[in-house]
Write a structure and sequence with these properties.
The structure is a homodimer of 208-residue chains. Chain A is mainly alpha-helical and 208 residues long. Chain A folds into two domains: 52 residues, Multidrug-efflux Transporter Regulator, Chain: A, Domain 2 (Orthogonal Bundle), CATH 1.10.1660; 118 residues, no CATH class. The first copy, chain A, is 63% helix and 2% strand. The first copy, chain A, is built from eight helices and two strands. A two-stranded antiparallel sheet of chain A has the order 1-2. In chain A, α3 packs across α4 and α7 packs antiparallel against α8. The structure holds a DNA duplex (30 and 30 nucleotides).
Chain lengths: 208, 208
DNA sequence: CTACACCCTCACGCTACGTGAGGGTCAATG
DNA sequence: CATTGACCCTCACGTAGCGTGAGGGTGTAG
């Protein structure tokens, strides 16, 4: 009692072509075929596909996902904990974006009083995911890197937070200078190097 | 006092190549070049780039972004409100995913007691964004579609919510049947048609 | 005048599928 | 039992959004 491609596709919310593709690259393979060559998927494939979608959701490439899933000591629980952590970061990032939008809207309503006002926010915390990606990529020691990840989020993370707060304060102190002042730019660049990105929000409607 | 490509790239957290690309396709164009042909970006370009990144963040394609931004009656405020709405949905989706992870973790800790347990959650609210995309794509009447969007989020949205609750209840009622029972599948497919996607979470560790 | 960090324009490569083309399969129906 | 319609298959080329050199100018600090 297996699933056909279409059934699985509908179940998972992906296209049939996608399943064909995953089959082709060996990412999710039906372990059975009918006499006519039809793919037949079973529960195990379903679970595998779910894992794939999870990791994809987190921004990993298909090749990386394959590596991770094919790791013999792949620990589902650790992986899920990792998922959760990343999801939480994503959520925070989105919350930041929402706040950025709100501030921009507010600026617009306050009229042009906020001209030249520069707001900073994170568009680009994708670098954290880059980190994680690189760690998971190291097929050699997945668990170990998970450990480090834990340490990372608990200790270094706060340190990074503090550092960024410093930088933000530094920028705030320069806020009276024009935004293209070299000092300001230097500070912004420092900010970038520490993994946080600056975003300049618009100050007024464009409509010419 | 403009910005060079690299400066702008660092500011916005994108690569130089990306800026070249955006220039090539006319998405973000420096309105000036030095004698040597160097690109020189100004504040207007910065703002434009921010808009682009915003929309990109929301999943629009570069072509669509161009269309939207080049609309003469482009209303920044409406656009921002639209952003916010989408961001909120994303956030909710992520929250759902987090809950899904939590439930899975819990199932795992409860041992194998939850075998065959099927959990549903949204992997795929991307369909909402599809909707919005199609609306923004219609260059003809952007404002009008924004209006409809408002109506949508205020009235129809609740209706959809209710409908989905119904479907979920229906599925819950079938929970004692095996997950590949045709009745269950039919229900799941109905769910799909209404724009919500089903996700089957794994029930136990894989480690062979 | 020599480094070194930056700038330019091709132009080909890559990922993750979309989208037909051309052709079997199978359960229900006339 | 032949047909219809909804599936299934395998090529195979197309697309988006850049990455990544290749090959070569620029500009400013020492």
């Amino acid at each position: 009692m297996g699933y056909t491609v279409k059934m699985l596709a509908d179940l998972a919310g992906v296209s049939v072509r996608t399943l064909h593709h995953y089959d082709a690259i060996g990412l999710v393979r039906p372990d059975e075929r009918t006499g006519a060559g039809y793919r037949v998927y079973h529960r195990g494939d379903l679970e595998r596909l779910q894992q794939v979608l999870f990791f994809k959701e987190l921004g990993l490439g298909l090749g990386e996902i394959k590596e991770v899933l094919d790791q013999p000591d792949f620990d589902r629980r650790q992986a899920l904990l990792g998922h959760k952590e990343l999801l939480r970061r994503r959520k925070e990032r989105i919350e930041r974006l929402i706040r950025a939008v709100d501030r921009t809207l507010q600026s617009m309503e306050e009229g042009t009083a906020v001209e030249e006002k520069v707001m900073f926010d994170g568009f680009d915390s994708a670098q954290y995911e880059e980190e994680v990606r690189r760690r998971w990529g190291h097929t050699a020691a997945y668990k170990e890197s998970q450990e480090r990840m834990k340490d990372y989020t608990q200790a270094d993370f706060e340190a990074i937070q503090r550092e960024q707060t410093e930088i933000l304060k530094a920028i705030a102190a320069l806020a009276d200078k024009p935004p293209d002042d070299p000092e300001v730019l230097a500070e912004i660049r420092r900010m970038h190097l520490s993994g946080q990105s600056a975003v300049l929000l618009p100050r007024a409607p464009i409509n010419s």
